[in-house]
Amino acid sequence: MAAQPNSQLPLRTVTVTLNEDTRDRFFDELKKFADTYAFAIRIAPNHPDLKHFLIQMWRVDIKGIGSNVLEIDEFNISFYNNSNHPVGAEAVERVVVGLKQAIEKIPGATSSDSK
């Protein structure tokens, strides 16, 4: 399927794997991360089973969108440019490193990222 004209590829994607019983801790750490890095954040269930969630984070230059659609215990959070001006690689790197550090605080959680 071809990309839509206004679509964009993520700048970076972080994959987080955790146990379902640490999901609330994950959400707490995400909120702290968002506060530290000046993101507004929204976390909401996107399925009646209350096990699948949508994560939205945004600020003037970067937005993050994540979910655990495919696997209950795996969240993929992708960061995108959120303005007409390109985001510097250093700014994206700082955000990704900060997110991974937040995840390290969750027992049993792991993260990996792709560029």
In short:
The protein is α+β, with helices and mostly antiparallel strands and 115 residues long. Helix content is 26%, strand content 36%.
Would you give an account of this structure?
It is a single chain. With 115 residues, the protein is an alpha+beta fold. It has one domain: Sirohaem synthase, central domain (Double Stranded RNA Binding Domain, 2-Layer Sandwich), CATH 3.30.160. Helices cover 26% and strands 36% of the residues. The chain has a six-stranded antiparallel β-sheet with strand order 2-3-4-5-1-6, covered by helices on one side. A hairpin with a 3-residue loop joins β3 (53-58) and β4. The chain is globular, with a radius of gyration of 14 Å.
Number of helices: 2
Reading side by side through the largest sheet, how are the strands ordered?
2-3-4-5-1-6
Instruction: Estimate the strand proportion.
Output: 35-45%
What is the CATH topology?
Answer: Double Stranded RNA Binding Domain
